[in-house]
Amino acid sequence: MKNIIFEIRYYLLFLVLSVGFFLTLIFNSESSTNSVNENFNSGEIERSNIDLEKFLPLNSEKEQTSNRTHIIYVEKNNTLIELLDKAGLSNKYIRALIKAKGSEKLANLKIGDKLEIDINRDQVPENIFLTSDGLNGINANFKNGLFSIGTASRQPDVLERFASVEIEDSLYSSALKSGIPDSVIMDMVYIFGWDIDFIFDIRPGDSFDILYEEYFLKGNQVKNGDIKAARFKRGKKVYTAIRYFLKNGEKEFFSIRGKNVEKAFLRSPVEFSYISSKYNLKRMHPILNKIKAHTGVDYAAPTGTPVRTTGDGTVSFRGNNGGYGKLIEIKHSEDYSTRYAHLSRYKKNLKVGDKVSQGEVIGYVGSTGRSTGPHLHYEFRVNGMHTDPLTVKLPAAEPINENEKDSFFKTAIEAMNMMDDYYLKLYAESN
């Protein structure tokens, strides 16, 4: 009887332990499920980091490589073979290129040229392009095991830009703050330089609107921006310039009325200097200390600053001339001549009788002759008589041709309307 009771005790104990273990399993399973559901519902699921490299073999080098473009700028003593080898081309492709007809054109490298090499994922050089300006050059295309070489031109993507700028301290710094490229700023100064002296005339509060194009190829800028239209407000005066391509393909700028913005003369012979002494027939001379007519305008600038001729003409004098120091005189016509004095040196090889073009550098600022410091003394003569270079009315270039007026006015209206639309959009976004 005792044995039977003892066996029943052990049986009950085993049953209790079994039921307890089974309930524990059920509770833990529900808790885990609820935890997962909670994490899932909250959008947060914990995942273990798995090192895939242990499970997946690495791709071969060939499979990893994608299409790529090598861009190499030519330096002194570079050779084509050297640059191709530097780009990683195999010898068989280099040999094939050198043997191809016309390869001597591609091998004619100049310092600063750009060599673009397009290589596909199979390490084949599909295209090789040598260019100096990013758009025009010599192209070698690889197809069916052979290179074909010839001249090529590429069309860039053209992006329009617009800026409206109020001048705060200086034109240059205000334009740069608005994101206008340096080259576009200088182009605008050149375009309006016949009517506006950007050294003397500009005041804080003057403003301008400018519409220009930028040129990109494969995401890279390939040439400087080109102005389509500009409007400059100086005090109460408004100057306009519209780009127009004539029937002969030449580009010129005209006002909204069709007048050529260019004049026969630039207003200033030195860029971004300042006027230290104006035209004054009763000026006290700083060295002689007596009243002596100042028959020109003095532009203060560092020694070596380039001096440009303000108009087309012929060099009629080059040499030392008393108080003028080193002097150049340009005869522009029977009526007009200009003088450039106190130069430190002349343009190399410039001599009497040479033809010069408007804007061409003819010498460099100095302090020769009777001078208190580095500056350019500039004179403008009409029929041999001195005139004030700052106020003299400059003769204009030819206006738009009669047979192109309709086409020009259509272009001008479109450009001005486009600038107005950009301005209104810019104004709306800023308010």
Question: Can you describe what's shown?
Answer:
This protein has helices at 2-41, 61-64, 80-86, 91-99, 103-106, 171-177, 182-192, 405-429; strands spanning 68-73, 114-119, 125-131, 136-143, 146-153, 157-166, 207-217, 220-234, 237-245, 251-254, 274-277, 297-300, 306-308, 313-320, 326-331, 336-346, 355-356, 361-365, 375-382, 385-387. It is an alpha+beta fold. Strands 11, 12, 13, 14, 15, 16, 17, 18, 19 and 20 form a ten-stranded antiparallel sheet that branches. It is extended and about 115 Å long. The relative contact order is 0.08.
Number of strands: 20
Give the H and E element order: HHEHHHEEEEEHHEEEEEEEEEEEEEEH
* Backbone CA Rg: 38 Å
Q: Helix content range of the residues, please?
A: 10-25%
Shape: extended
Q: Which CATH C-level class of the largest domain is it?
A: Alpha Beta
Number of helices: 8
Describe the largest sheet.
10 strands, antiparallel
Low-confidence stretches are: 1-6, 29-64, 278-288
Number of domains: 3
Distance between the termini: 103 Å
Q: Overall pLDDT, averaged?
A: 81
Indicate the CATH topology of the largest domain.
Nuclear Transport Factor 2, Chain: A
User: What structural class should be given to the helix and strand makeup?
Assistant: alpha+beta
CATH-defined architecture of the largest domain: Roll
- Assess the beta-strand content as a share of residues: 25-35%
